[in-house]
Amino acid sequence: MIAKIIFSSFHFIGHVKNVKYASRILKSDFRTWTSLHYPVIPFKLSDIGEGIKEVTVKRSFLKPHQKLSQFEDVCEVESDKASVTITSRFDGLVKNVYFKEGDVITVGSTLCDIETGNESADPGNIIVEKELLMPAHENKPIIEEKTKFTHTERNQESAHIQKYPSEQTAEEVHSDKLLATPAVRRIARENNVNLHLLKGTGRGGRIMKEDILAYLNQPPKERFTPVFAEEAEISELVSGYQKVMVRTMTESNRIPTLGLSDEIDVTDLEILRKSIKTVLAVEGIKLSFLAFLVKAVSLSLVKYPILNAKFEGHDTIKYQNSHNIGIAVDTESGLVVPSIKDVTRLNIRQIAKEIQRLQKLADQNKLSIADTAYGTFTISNIGSIAGTVVKPLILPPQVAIVGVGRIRSLPRYDATDQIHKRLVVNVSWAADHRIIDGGTTARFSNLVKQYLENPGLLIVDG
Ligand code: CAO
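# oxidized coenzyme A complex -> structure
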């Protein structure tokens, strides 16, 4: 051992520019050098992950007294969940091998002893060594940078090993082509770091502990830290309006539905509405576009009663005399659909008043069962919030619904090919295709369009 140390000391002298200092190393500090020794490290099978407790050795690559380099294969092991190649983290000499092919070994047991050839002298010795190699008149050490780095690195490693014995082993788990030791994977897990986001600086792209530390040392906005799904979950029971929505919309999705969209020019209607709106406002009535739409739909249902029917998937279609037009209302508690009853008997002023009443009660969460029940057709005016085209879902046992987009100012050609600024809105019909065909839906849509584009007709027929 001493001979080996003296030999390596001479090796160091090769790097020493000033022989005078080299001789000082040999003469005055022989005591220090003789205190160095090579540790024998038990190389253990550490946690492979996946809950694996024991593995079978498929292949062994070790022989006693062989030289072993860092990342050299030690053995190949397998369990019912994974096949793993164990590689060495240290350069050294294999002293004893405690396994053979076919053995079943448990996590934590020693695979072999490795004499590392790494002087685990106490830190004091290392400092003395550096001081000796530093010429008194120079401020920089005359050991080659590379050599110094290796010493520091190894010293850190041995300190680390003493502190965390479970990380003495260096199994490389090869999964998804990502190379990292189980210890590195554990550090990543504990710090919520997705290893796939890192670039490994180890041999062959292996991710090292230092790569994780460098990643974590970045300012938070420069790194993407995914939150594991289970930590991101907050459980909440579905209740209230949402519970109704779950039931009805699930049921709705089973209906074979026909969709049809069209554009309606509401320029003239808006002129009319604006002229009456202020008059009704004096009475506290808010006259919105929706009130006209409700009336136009009801008038059209008179001619196409099948869109106001009830169908429960059997062999009977139930035609309903009342036009109870449901309006989807957006509230803080969620979506609710009260209905304006018997619209055929109501004028636009009364419809506007009823919309206002229902909207107010909905906002206060005070709608009665009578308000929310018995709807026969539904209007979803999402355009009062936003959106150009909406795909509405039928509210069973009803058979039709209309979704309304936002009224927009757009350039449109007139009959003489002149462009004008017009107010247009997209309407999208959804009809139960089991009992309503496309032709009927299109004709119904056309009639509603006719009423809204010629609002005088609403007065005449309404
Ligand atoms: N595009 C542009 N403006 C519209 C519009 C539309 N589609 N519909 C209504 N407006 C206008 C109104 O005419 C009114 O204009 P003025 O301020 O000039 O008078 C203004 O928007 C405000 O109307 P409002 O929203 O207060 O009243 P409303 O009668 O049109 O609508 C209600 C009432 C309850 C239907 C509405 O407030 C609402 O909740 N809409 C959302 C419906 C919804 O969520 N549907 C989706 C269901 S599916 O999840």
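# post-check
Confidence is low (pLDDT under 50) at residues 1-35, 119-176.
The longest strand covers residues 419-432.
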